[in-house]
């Protein structure tokens, strides 16, 4: 079964996360398919930009707890988005949790509808948002990120735009993106590639400096007793024992 839909319209390749059974969670299979699709877009001279969107009411529920990707694979996917020589745009009309927020941080532009909600839920299941910090720490307001990382509370699209997690929010994500995609179609492919290189230089420096350490932290946390209990509680739809 294909987990990533692919369409093309006037230079924009649309990649659709299409894994409704697990709310588009980042399974090993989905991460692999998305990486392959992005690689194809990078080599296709007819692709001016990439739009990542989703089916259903959830953009991405974070890591698939039953079939999680290896941390190295997730790091590779996030870096691939940042390093792709073509702009990558996210269209969000549903909920985004945990690792899904790392995808938004990797994209160059992200727009969400007002119905979208966001949450860094890692601390509530006994882990930490380690790997996704590679894209989020360089681009997101640090004081706001501290609150949302530490509490796991849910926030809306207006707050996501305020803190720099997304570019813009509105009643209709497609209406927000219409001038964006028009602008990309009017731009020189060479100029887009070099301008993106300018914009992502500091993010890529973060990968070079911190990827190994954060990958090791992620692996250690997922192997911990708190994580085992937290993930079990999540799958059993109950509170873990540390909830007061």
UniProtKB/TrEMBL annotation:
InterPro entries: ClpP/crotonase-like_dom_sf, Enoyl-CoA_hydra/iso, Enoyl-CoA_hydra_C, Enoyl-CoA_Hydratase/Isomerase. CDD domains: crotonase-like. It comes from Streptomyces chromofuscus. It comes from the Bacteria. One of its GO terms (molecular function) is catalytic activity. This is Enoyl-CoA hydratase family protein. Signal peptide: none annotated. Belongs to the enoyl-CoA hydratase/isomerase family. SUPFAM superfamilies: ClpP/crotonase (SSF52096).
